[in-house]
Amino acid sequence: MDNDKFSLALPLSSSSTPSGSVDVPSDGAIVIVGANGSGKTRLGTWIESKYGAKAHRISAQKSLQMPEFAITSSVDRAMKKLLYGHQDADIGSREGNRWQRKPNTNLLNDYQSLVEYLSLTITLSQEDTRTQPLVLPTD
């Protein structure tokens, strides 16, 4: 995310006519913790769909496969692959590419994409003394 503060407005109830909302201010990550079946994934899906490019949901990582090596490309392509599920995708195709049109149930294994992105940004930061943070694009 950019350096601006981010406020997440959550509805107080699941009824069709919300009676209000609660703001969750953040200038970094928001972590949601709860028991199995409590709705963490559904809430994350709702947040991601409501806030678009301002939100990036990290799956529970139920079935990680550690890559033996990272295939490198450009930082931009690696970032798009991590954020949207394909190196040539954008925010509009995130649900189809990254979540296979099943944002609540698809088992995501994006560790390879994460390793690729991190290896490129670490290499660049070592070559160029400036840090290259992951900056989410805005709508």
Characterization of this structure:
- The protein contains four helices and two strands.
- By secondary structure, it is an alpha+beta fold.
- It has a two-stranded antiparallel ribbon with strand order 1-2.
- It is globular.
- The model has no long low-confidence stretch (mean pLDDT 76).
Label this structure with key terms.
139 residues, alpha+beta, two-stranded antiparallel ribbon
Strand content: 5-15%
- Cα(first) to Cα(last) distance is 12 Å
**Contiguous uncertain segments of 5+ residues:** none
Helix share bin = 25-40%
Integer average pLDDT: 76
Short description:
This protein has 139 residues and is of the alpha+beta class.
Any chance you could write out the topology, listing elements then pairs?
Elements: E1 6-11, E2 21-26, H1 40-51, H2 75-84, H3 94-97, H4 111-127
